[in-house]
C-alpha cells in the first residue's frame, strides 16, 4: 500500500532561522514559506534529490504543533509522509485493521488529499498519507 517517502517533517520554533540554516549551512534548495491556516502551520519545503523535508512552525492558537514544541522546544522530527495511490481505500483498510485515522481526509500542502494516523498505533511515529499517482 505505501509507496514513495514524500517528505519528512520537522517542527521548528523559528521557521525563518531553520530555513536559513538549511539554505546557508546545509546548502539546500529551500522554497518560499507558505501559510496553511487550515492546518495551523507555516511551512517551507526543502527539495532533496530523493525526497523533501517539510520545515513547519505553528500558525495560530490551535496549531497541532503547540503540544509537540512544548515537549521539544528546540524542535524535532514530527512526521513521515508516505504516498498511496488511493487515500480512501487506504483509510478504509487502516480503519478495518483498527488503526486510528485522525480526522477527515483534507487537502495537504501539495494540493492533494492527505490523512494522518495516530503515532501510538505506528511505533510512536506520526504518519501522514498523501494520495499521489504512482
Ligand atoms: C497537511 C498539511 C501539511 C502537509 O504535509 O500536507 C502537514 O503535514 S501539516 C502537519 C500538522 N498537522 C498534524 O500534525 C495533524 C495530525 N496531528 C494530530 O492530530 C495531533 O498532533 C496528534 C493527535 C498527533 C497529537 O496530538 P497532541 O499534540 O494534542 O498530543 P497528545 O498529547 O494528544 O499526544 C498523544 C501522544 O502522542 C504523542 N505525540 C504527539 N505528537 C507526536 C508526533 N508528532 N510524533 C510522535 N508522537 C507524538 C504524544 O507525545 C503523546 O504521547 P504520550 O506518551 O501519551 O505522552
Ligand atoms: Co506533512
TrEMBL record:
Residues 4-132 form the VOC domain. One of its GO terms (molecular function) is metal ion binding. It is an enzyme of class 5 (isomerase). InterPro entries: Glyas_Bleomycin-R_OHBP_Dase, MeMalonyl-CoA_epimerase, MMCE/EMCE_epimerase, VOC_core. Its EC number is 5.1.99.1. The keyword Chaperone does not apply. Keywords: Cobalt, Isomerase, Metal-binding. GO terms for biological process: L-methylmalonyl-CoA metabolic process. It holds the Pfam family Glyoxalase_4. It catalyses: (R)-methylmalonyl-CoA = (S)-methylmalonyl-CoA. Belongs to the methylmalonyl-CoA epimerase family. This is methylmalonyl-CoA epimerase. The gene is mce.
Amino acid at each position: 500500500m505505501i509507496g514513495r517517502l514524500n517528505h519528512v517533517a520537522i517542527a521548528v520554533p523559528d521557521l525563518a532561522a531553520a530555513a536559513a540554516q538549511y539554505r546557508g549551512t546545509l546548502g539546500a534548495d529551500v522554497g518560499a514559506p507558505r501559510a496553511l491556516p487550515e492546518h495551523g502551520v507555516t511551512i517551507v519545503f526543502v527539495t532533496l534529490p530523493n525526497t523533501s523535508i517539510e520545515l513547519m512552525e505553528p500558525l495560530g492558537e490551535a496549531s497541532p504543533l503547540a503540544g509537540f514544541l512544548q515537549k521539544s522546544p528546540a524542535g524535532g522530527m514530527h512526521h513521515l509522509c508516505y504516498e498511496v495511490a488511493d487515500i480512501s481505500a487506504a483509510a478504509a483498510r487502516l480503519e478495518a485493521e483498527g488503526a486510528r485515522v485522525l480526522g477527515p481526509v483534507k487537502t495537504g500542502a501539495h494540493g492533494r488529499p492527505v490523512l494522518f494516523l495516530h503515532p501510538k498505533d505506528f511505533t510512536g511515529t506520526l504518519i501522514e498519507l498523501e494520495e499521489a499517482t504512482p
